[in-house]
């Protein structure tokens, strides 16, 4: 039988079963946008002829990574708010207040390029003006599960004194919810199913109970997930106690929002008991180790969440917090930080981290029937990694196999050579085939410089830690 692509002679991680589903000297047959068959080299060779054959000798083939929580719209502010207190007010806000939607979309494209080149094939993007950003995914050929960030917070919220109760503006909430619903109606299951849409309530502290209930109703009507920050920091908990007299998770449970429809992001300030209740409710969790580690210096209770039976996955969050939208970084950070937190080198092993960036992420996002593992009938989303890079040396397959530990603890992302999404080769020999990478970066760089120029007065008046470091010659 003739198929479009055969990848042969590869080490394969299918991510099927409880582990990583390792196949030595395996092959994959791709027809259209799906995996037609997968097995040993001899099995595939005997049954299929490929229009194109890719020799993957000394290479690893595995599912593309799923970045379950990313704000690509603020990628244009990478590196402006690190190593500091009051990250939002003093670091990010002086820049954010000068950002236009068009500039946000330009920076977003560079963030997507960064992710693609380090093995991410599915981006669960969660940001404002997703109607503009989604066009980047259509153009570049990546898979995306997007949500508009819905809140009722005025644009000048960053100027409020720390600790003051947020003012809510219903007109803002109505506009943003309409954009999310329009996004769903216009783009859900578009591009042959490559683009899908869910709902994006910003957080329980960022909107009125009335708007949150309305979003809950739309989620039930559309039978879709709610991607939401939950207990994401002490500011949120403070706002919730001041407004409702209770913490976030108690509030969500009381309002009927703690269930399998909820995707709870961060849980930074959740107690172990609260994390267990979220897990037991059926809600999923997204852990952003690099971002929360850098911004808050904390390790959320993800280990306890999983030990309580919950399904958790990984996200890179945003460039001005994490600095690195690269799932190799998230896997390594997640494993190491939890080993340190638990004072146990055996916990949070490499296999767990790898599953959280692939099949477990697909489960949390509600798309595991289509992606997240390499299986006959699933979408053909996969990456080919060069095992002859020094970061993988040596490659051993018996009596032990060290490919997975090296993938998580040693690899950095540049080892990804080829990316296939929906059966299409998007990157080959590390060259993107769908867009002009240099032109996209050049355009976004100009936009970033323009924002910085417009924002100079606000940046200087913020008197942030990072500005002090510049003055002292430390940066």
Automatic annotation (TrEMBL):
A Pfam family that the UniProt record links to this protein: Amidohydro_1
Annotated ranges, domain Amidohydrolase-related: 60-425
GO molecular function (one): hydrolase activity, acting on carbon-nitrogen (but not peptide) bonds
InterPro entries: Amidohydro-rel, Metal-dep_hydrolase_composite, Metal_Hydrolase, MTA/SAH_deaminase
Keywords: Hydrolase
Protein name per its UniProtKB record: Amidohydrolase
């Amino acid at each position: 039988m003739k198929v479009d692509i055969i990848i042969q002679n590869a080490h394969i991680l299918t991510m099927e079963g409880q582990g990583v589903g390792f196949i030595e000297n395996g092959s994959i047959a791709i027809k259209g946008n799906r995996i037609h068959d997968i097995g040993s080299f001899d099995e595939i060779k005997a049954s299929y002829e490929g229009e194109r054959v890719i020799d993957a000798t000394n290479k690893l083939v595995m599912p593309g990574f799923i970045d379950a929580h990313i704000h690509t719209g603020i990628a244009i502010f990478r590196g402006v708010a690190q190593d500091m207190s009051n990250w939002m007010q003093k670091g990010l806000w002086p820049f954010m207040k000068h950002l236009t939607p068009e500039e946000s979309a330009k920076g977003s494209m560079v963030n997507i390029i960064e992710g693609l080149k380090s093995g991410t094939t599915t981006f669960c993007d969660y940001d404002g003006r997703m109607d503009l950003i989604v066009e980047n995914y259509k153009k570049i050929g990546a898979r995306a599960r997007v949500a508009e960030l819905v809140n009722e917070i005025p644009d000048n919220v960053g100027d409020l004194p720390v600790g003051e109760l947020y003012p809510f503006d219903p007109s803002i909430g109505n506009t943003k919810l309409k954009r999310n619903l329009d996004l769903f109606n216009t783009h859900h299951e578009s591009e042959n199913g490559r683009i899908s849409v869910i709902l994006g309530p910003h957080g329980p502290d960022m909107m009125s109970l009335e708007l949150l209930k309305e979003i809950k109703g739309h989620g039930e009507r559309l039978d879709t997930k709610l991607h939401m920050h939950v207990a994401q920091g002490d500011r949120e908990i403070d706002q919730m106690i001041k407004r409702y007299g209770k913490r976030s998770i108690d509030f969500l449970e009381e309002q009927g929002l703690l269930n399998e429809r909820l995707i709870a992001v961060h849980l930074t300030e959740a107690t172990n008991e609260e994390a267990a209740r979220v897990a037991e409710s059926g809600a999923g969790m997204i852990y952003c180790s690099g971002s929360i580690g850098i911004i808050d210096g904390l390790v959320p209770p993800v280990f306890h969440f999983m030990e309580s039976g919950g399904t958790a996955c990984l996200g890179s969050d945003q460039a001005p917090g994490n600095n690195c939208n690269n799932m190799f970084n998230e896997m390594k950070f997640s494993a190491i930080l939890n080993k340190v937190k638990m004072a146990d080198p055996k916990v949070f092993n490499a296999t767990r981290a790898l599953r959280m960036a692939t099949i477990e992420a697909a489960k949390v996002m509600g798309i595991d029937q289509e992606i997240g593992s390499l299986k006959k009938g699933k979408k053909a989303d996969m990456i080919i990694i060069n095992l002859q890079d020094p970061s993988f040396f040596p490659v051993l397959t018996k009596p032990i196999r060290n490919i997975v530990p090296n993938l998580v603890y040693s690899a950095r992302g540049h080892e990804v050579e080829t990316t296939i999404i929906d059966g299409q080769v998007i990157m080959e020999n590390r060259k993107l085939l769908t867009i002009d990478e240099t032109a996209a970066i050049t355009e976004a760089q100009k936009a970033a410089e323009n924002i910085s120029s417009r924002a100079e007065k606000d940046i200087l008046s913020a008197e942030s830690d990072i500005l002090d470091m510049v003055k002292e010659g430390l940066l």
